[in-house]
Amino acid sequence: MKGVNFLFFILFLGLGVLTSYIIGGFKPEYLNLSMGASFAVAFLLALSIKIADEWERIVILRLGRFSAVKGPGIFLVFPIVDRAIFVDTRILTLDIPKQQVITKDNVPVSINGVVYFKVLKVDDAIIKVQNYTFAMSQYAQATLRDVIGGMTLDQLLAEREKIGKEIEEAVEKESANWGLEVSTIKIQDIDMPEELKKMMSRQASAEREKRATITKAEGDRDASFNLAAAAATMAASPGAMQLRTLQTIDGLGPTASNTVVLAVPIEIMQAATALAKMQKN
Predict the structure, then answer these.
(1) pLDDT (tens digit per residue) in 80-111
(2) Bigger pLDDT: 18 or 101?
(3) DSSP one-letter string for 89-123
(4) What are phi and psi of 146, to 5 degrees?
(5) Are 35 and 14 in contact (CB under 8 A)?
(6) Cβ neighbours around 39 below 10 Å, total
(7) What is the DSSP string of 29-44?
(8) Could you read off the pLDDT of 67-83 as tens digits, one per residue?
(9) pLDDT digits over 20-36, tens only?
(10) pTM of this prediction?
């Protein structure tokens, strides 16, 4: 007996004793009988009071037949005649244990997930299914194996959200007949053999190296184009080479420890170039 029922029991017992005193007084011949009757009536009345929380509904079975759905709040049931079944209507979390599945391309994987659902029709969940939580768990496991078995490993790794949606649609279609509503199904973990993980790691490393080589080659090509354009620009400008040389010397460092020696002055190189042009003419 819960605390609230106990309080009502004490209240009803006190009212019964008070009523017996008013009617028959404290005569010895009535005292034991009135106390016994008051105790029995108070006990039955206390058992008949049921309280459902805001998120609970109660299915009433009267002599084995469905009578009504009550709650939330306080209400009365008939002891012995009625049977009250409490049902939680909040969103429930159900774990899908790890399942050993063979994918479409014959790769063994272990996969688990989680189901979020709630009871939408309380009477159907109690009357049509023996244990709706167990039924949901088993059906979700079977559906997960069916969906994963029809996919390749690459699809399994790349389309986890799609897999969850497919399982959710299949489970929701059947569970709707049980008075249940599936909120969502999520895939939590996908476990593969260690050898396969190493092979996938080597493949990913090779792919990254391939992309790095291609990127470097493209960078060298673009750099050669830019160098050729810069050389053409400097060749067209007489003082461009001298300015570039001075800029390079300035960038060698501001400290005095760097010493730059020009074996051939720029002016001599320019004079030699001009002399060579005159000889050709």
Answers:
(1) 888 889 999 999 998 888 888 888 888 888 88
(2) 101
(3) -SPEEEEEEEEEEE-TTS-EEEEEEEEEEEES-HH
(4) -65, -45
(5) no
(6) 15
(7) HHHHHHHHHHHHHHHH
(8) 888 878 888 888 888 88
(9) 666 655 555 555 666 66
(10) 0.60
Other Cβ atoms less than 10 A from the Cβ of 128: the count is 13
Tell me how far apart the terminal alpha carbons of the chain are, to the nearest angstrom: 121
The rounded distance, in Å, linking the Cα atoms of 136 and 132 is 6
Residue given tokens 């899908």 in the structure block = 96
**Widest distance between CA atoms in the chain:** 152
Look up tokens 């003082």; give the residue.
Answer: 239
Residue 119's pLDDT is: 92
CA-to-CA separations, 147 to 135, 162, 164, 230, in angstroms, rounded: 18, 10, 9, 60
Residue with tokens 């009625």: 82
Q: Do residues 125 and 133 lie in contact, with contact meaning Cβ atoms separated by under 8 Å?
A: no
**Which two three-digit tokens encode residue 2?**
């819960």
Residue spans per domain, the chain? 3-88, 92-196, 235-250+260-273
Lookup: tokens for 124 = 């159907």
Q: Are 118 and 180 in contact (CB under 8 A)?
A: yes
Query: CATH classification of 92-196 is 3.30.479.30, yes or no?
Result: yes
Strand partners, 112: 189
Cβ neighbours, 10 Å, residue 138 = 11
Phi then psi dihedrals of residue 73, to 5 deg: 115, -160
Helix (H) or strand (E) holding 255: none
CB atoms under 10 Å from CB of 122, counted, come to 21
Q: Are 59 and 50 in contact (CB under 8 A)?
A: no
pLDDT tens digits, 114-157: 999 999 999 999 998 988 999 998 998 888 888 888 888 878 87
- What order of strands is seen across the sheet that includes strand 108-119? 92-102, 108-119, 180-191
Q: Is the pLDDT of residue 164 over 80?
A: yes
